[in-house]
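subagent[fold] <- orchestrator: predict structure for attached chain, return tokens only, no commentary.
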Amino acid sequence: PVVQIGIGGSDLGPRAMYIALENWAKKNNAFKMEAKFISNVDPDDAAAVLASTDVAHSIFVLVSKSGTTLETLTNESFVKDALKKAGLDPSKHMIAVTSETSPLAKSDDYLDAFFMDDYIGGRFSSTSSVGGAVLSLAFGPEVFAEFLDGAAEEDKLSANPDMRKNPEMLDALIGVYERNVLGYPCTAVLPYSQALSRFPAHLQQLDMESNGKSVNRFGEPVTYPTGPVIFGEPGTNGQHSFYQLLHQGTDIVPLQFIGFKNNQLETDVTIQDSTSQQKLCANVAAQIVAFACGKSDENLNKNFKGGRPSSIIIGDKLTPKTLGALLAHFENKIMFQGFVWNINSFDQEGVQLGKVLAKKVLAHDTDGALKVYSDLLNI
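subagent[fold] -> orchestrator:
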């Protein structure tokens, strides 16, 4: 197998893309090798992955643009230790994905290094070598090329000045209207495809890390709401989880459905006069109408007010090309919203403060509340 070591955009996007295409690749004889991911600095994450991996027959991809990401370098040490204990030379089993200016770029610890541009944030890097290395190893470079083709075609659509022919701009402005005119603080992303089970988690980072800003691009405080809270789960699973709040809760949450006319693997059964795919799509249609129209009932416990706004993205089938297009759609949508809000969607200063304080804790340079919590956690 190939094991990717990274965190944030070095994990969420590539992992979501791999899961989305894994079964498609197996069905279409494009599956080359299994991909696994180590991201969390929690030692149980690395230990569990390595325990289920034959390290002697594995390639490890270390992903860090700066080459200094604490969690990633810690997990790299974990992997190197496992390789050494197996009597193996780590440098014969590891490649790096980094920037040309990072300390990893010219290190002898790797079979090879693949570079990403300094200006690409991790959350926008799935179409770079960050996603390219692991997806090409898992499915072959031809599949990754199809994925890029889909993204490129969607990028071209986003440059169309006619908003009616620019789905990314239209989607962005719908979101701005829901956030700034209607005042809704959250958006639920609901893909009716099990293959997209990790896609909402990737969009959560892509959107919230990009547009979760309270100052504009000139460093001045904004006087209006910016990025929403993003969450989601595949349908129909979510219907049996949090849809209760979406239908009858005190807060209105805009909904973004993603659906496909045909299932990915073309395997299905007919039960009670309909296929599983028809049942899945029927639930999409039913939920959209239920959220919008509701249902009146004298018993308030069974009354649905409706008025829950939603939009839907429909594809024919989830393939590498449609996945690339779907990813590019959201990347461009989020960028356009940043333009409207006059914020910088391409930095993430909110990530830094916690890192600085964590280093102080590890150096035992603590006082006040930091010392109290350090002692409580027995650090």
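orchestrator: received. Logging for downstream: The longest strand covers residues 186-191. DSSP finds twelve helices and eleven strands in the chain.
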